[in-house]
Automatic annotation (TrEMBL):
This is Glycosyltransferase. It comes from Anaerofilum hominis. Residues 199-337 form the Glycosyl transferase family domain. Residues 14-185 form the Glycosyltransferase subfamily 4-like N-terminal domain. Pfam families: Glyco_transf_4 (PF13439), Glycos_transf_1 (PF00534). It comes from the Bacteria. One of its GO terms (molecular function) is hexosyltransferase activity. The lineage of its organism: Bacteria, Bacillati, Bacillota, Clostridia, Eubacteriales. PANTHER family: SULFOQUINOVOSYL TRANSFERASE SQD2 (PTHR45947:SF3). SUPFAM superfamilies: UDP-Glycosyltransferase/glycogen phosphorylase.
Length: 394
């Protein structure tokens, strides 16, 4: 099959969605399928095709690093798709490139598969800063996402949380639940140079006996990193062997720096900035726990990477995204600052042998997220979309 995948952003920009698409692309190509990625590059001055990726010029969005806006109807861009002649159009976004994907589908008469990655109710503050404005904007946003879903032949979501969101938007049709996956080989301990792990520990200042916690992701308001810093500070300020590292970049970086300084935990909480994806595995292996307070995740890629590395997850309770955590086996959930501290101190009280056994068990739980199983599930959706579309146009 030929599959055209549409995304707002792609490498060199890093995000969970980019990692997801790269995994899908590699899995499809390994099985003999052809893939064309269609994405934007805010730094590009013209359309260009490179290594199976069509980069389209766009106007950069200052508030969202790596993203841009472009005309969703473009005949020059369409000519590349016409030449590729895909069997399936797979949109991984609802905006510029997603709308262009829907335009291509109409012009080329192709089925559309739509993957929803984002709980947009948690992102409305980017366009409507006040709660009052969000109440006005939300019904219109729900109508918009309902109409994107309506135009798709098949819909994919990484967790049941997608079903809950789309039902709120008024979408009643079937939704395929296919959990995100990670390439375990990049993060398994046997594939990582111990010297690189030790170098990462030295760089981070992690000493024997320390309890090191890690977050990897975009530093955006929707990630609730302010809650994470507050809970950490409330419980561990002054206990310097407890450390929290935040890897990533985003619009909340400066506010977080100010919060960390105001809380007096500069020696314990560090913003490490953006780290290239291929350099992340030693950082995961150097730390003990992965922690997040975000309620906006659907099926977190960075959490899966952390679990593949053996890191026990300390996650804020999200009623609609409980599937990633099997309490006591690969992580635990908290609802408040005291619950957050209890999970971490209980882990710290374990013996070294208990921690090692737990780490190995956490890594084992990610085997259900295998790349081959993930790719096979998506291909089944593609095949069904092609069949359904062929019946529709007869």
């Amino acid at each position: 099959m030929k599959i055209a995948i549409f995304a707002e952003t792609y490498y060199p920009f890093i995000s969970g969605v980019v990692t997801h698409i790269e995994t899908l692309k590699n899995g499809l190509e390994a099985q003999g399928h052809q893939v064309l990625i269609v994405t934007m590059n805010p730094k590009a001055s013209h359309h260009y095709l490179k290594d199976g990726i069509l980069y389209c010029p766009s106007i950069p969005l200052k508030k969202i690093y790596g993203y841009g806006v472009a005309n969703p109807v473009n005949l020059r861009r369409l000519s590349y798709l016409r030449a590729f002649n895909p069997d399936v159009i797979h949109i991984q976004t609802e905006f510029t490139m997603g709308l262009f994907g829907l335009f291509c589908a109409r012009q080329l008469k192709k089925p559309v598969v739509y993957t929803l990655h984002t709980m947009y109710d948690d992102y409305l503050f980017y366009v409507a800063p006040s709660e009052r404005m969000q109440k006005v904007v939300k019904p219109g946003a729900h109508w918009y996402f309902k109409n994107v879903a309506k135009k798709a032949t098949e819909i994919i979501g990484p967790s049941p949380k997608v079903v809950e969101f789309l039902r709120r938007c008024g979408v009643e049709r079937h939704i395929n639940i296919i959990p995100n996956t990670v390439d375990l080989s990049d993060f398994m301990v046997e594939n990582i140079d111990p010297a690189a792990v030790q170098q990462a520990r030295e760089k981070l200042g992690i000493r024997p006996g320390d309890v090191s916690m890690l977050f990897v992701g975009r530093l955006g308001k929707e990630k609730s990193l302010d809650v994470l810093v507050d809970f950490f500070s409330e419980n561990f300020a002054g206990e310097e062997r407890f450390k929290l590292f935040l890897i990533g970049d985003g619009p909340e970086a400066e506010a977080l720096r100010a919060q960390i300084a105001a809380r007096g935990v500069e020696k314990q909480v560090r913003l490490l900035g953006r780290v290239d994806h291929d350099l992340l595995p030693p950082y995961f292996q150097a730390c003990d726990l992965f922690t997040t307070a975000s309620l906006s995740e659907i099926n977190s890629i960075s959490m899966l990477e952390a679990m593949a590395s053996g890191l026990y997850v300390v996650q804020r309770l999200d009623l609609y995204n409980r599937e990633q955590i099997d309490q006591g086996k690969n992580g635990d959930v908290f609802v408040d600052a005291s619950g957050y501290a209890k999970i971490i101190r209980d882990w710290d009280a374990l013996s070294d042998s208990e921690k090692s056994a737990l780490r190995a068990g956490v890594s084992d739980t990610t085997r259900r997220y295998g790349e081959k199983e993930f790719t096979r599930s998506v291909i089944h959706v593609y095949q069904r979309a092609v069949y359904e579309y062929s019946m529709k146009i007869k």
